[in-house]
Amino acid sequence: MNKQKLKNEIIKALKEQGFRINPHIRPVGHSKTTYRRIQQNSKLEQLSLHKNFLIESIEKVKKHCRDGAEIIPEKISLELKEIHSGSFEEILFRWWNFIWWSIPYQHPYGRQMRFLVWDITHDAPFGLFCLQSPVLKMAVRDRLLGLPNDELDIWVNKSLNAQRVGALPPYNELLGGKMVALTLACNEVREAYKRKYKNYVSIIRGRKIKPDLLFITTTSAFGKSSLYNRLKYNGEVVAECLGYTQGSGTFHIPEELYEELLEFLRNQGIDVTRGYGHGPSRKLKLISLGLKYLGLPKFEYHGIKREFYLFSLVKNLREVVQKRKRPIWIDRPFNSLVDFWKERWAIPRAERMPEWKDFNSNKFFKKTEKMLRNLDKV
Q1: Coil, strand or helix: which one is 210?
Q2: Is 295 exposed, middle or buried (0-12, 13-18, 19+ CB in 10 A)?
Q3: H or E segment at 159?
Q4: First-residue to last-residue Cα distance in the chain
Q5: Which residues of the chain fall below pLDDT 50?
Q6: What pLDDT digit, counting tens, does each position of 215-262 carry?
Q7: Are strands 236-237 and 232-233 parallel, antiparallel or unpaired?
Q8: Which residues on adjacent β-strands are paired with residue 194?
Q9: Residue 159, beta-bridge partner list
């Protein structure tokens, strides 16, 4: 595809998603409904790529999904499962990961850990989250913690970034998302990290880094977050809001056009190597460079700003970073968080809003399967 045609195709795709261009791109509105609609094409593209897996796995996933009326909130008993490749839990994780969220899944890079929160009593997946290497530079994070430029890789490699944080139906209606968010800060996640990365050597500078997971970062899906806002445990803030991201990303460039953009850059003699060792921001950098060459500078900024949150796992995070103090770990046992969530959110919600019982798993799966089978007709 020649330069002008590729440029025109990218502009056309952006307008079809719901962006206006004058001269940079911006959403046509700022409601959550608008943001979801903008990202719908990208999500449908992703579902199409994994259509066979999603359809073939429906019956397996359905067996472990409960109607709302089957759940007894007082008897919910949760455990945390780390996902391992090839396991049944991985099938459940992947299926819900693609289906349940309205925003498209971003492939993780670098260090990765995936977790499923499981309701033992009702034998059903409660929620899930994915942890991965954060981007090397993040202004709001680096400014708050005072991260020195020459030590960024040290401190970034003592943290992870969370995505896909949330509860699955019918637990989402019981404010189960609050429980999954609290789980990011539990002792068990920190201990699992220590086991997995006890011999970790950083990619950028080849440093052997002590496997202390000091903090986790994440962003809201759309603008202000109801999930992380005022998230507390025993009176202490668990998720600290640091501000908003600048609204840049890659989801709004369709995969087909991304590949065309890479081919265009190759023809300019530019190295477009991706994969292990190139970090989580490699795709964004390549898209930014390609758009600049096409005369579309800053089109990687889609204008959907997200709240940025930090979950500190130590009481003295700034002193650890700036003064090399020993970490004072915050004690948050997973089971204690579960008890707290049930008393603080789940049971009061169940009594106040009984419509959470209305979720019907058969209807949900029939509707989902029909949507998947009709993907090629969209």
Answers
A1: coil
A2: exposed
A3: strand 159-167
A4: 25
A5: 378
A6: 999 988 766 778 998 899 999 999 999 888 766 777 778 888 888 888
A7: antiparallel
A8: none
A9: 215
pLDDT of the residue at 280:
54
Closest CA to 134 of 69, 246, 216, 253: 216
Residue 212: per-residue pLDDT:
93
Peptide bond into 148 cis (omega under 30): no
Longest dimension (CA), the chain: 63
For residue 189, how many C-alpha atoms fall within 13 Å in the half-sphere facing its CB?
A: 35
Amino acid identity, position 361: S
pLDDT score of 139:
82
Q: Name the amino acid, one letter, at 248.
A: S
Whether residue 329 contacts residue 245, with contact meaning beta carbons closer than 8 Å, is answered with no
pLDDT at 298: 79
Rounded (10°) angle between helices 176-183 and 334-341 = 160
Give pLDDT tens digits for 113-132.
999 999 999 999 999 999 99
pLDDT given for residue 205 in this prediction: 64
Q: Domain extents for the chain?
A: 31-247+303-377
| Contact (Cβ atoms closer than 8 angstroms) between residue 234 and residue 340 | yes
Q: Are 216 and 162 in contact (CB under 8 A)?
A: yes
Tokens encoding 257: 């056009």
32-49 vs 3-17: helix crossing angle, rounded to 10: 120
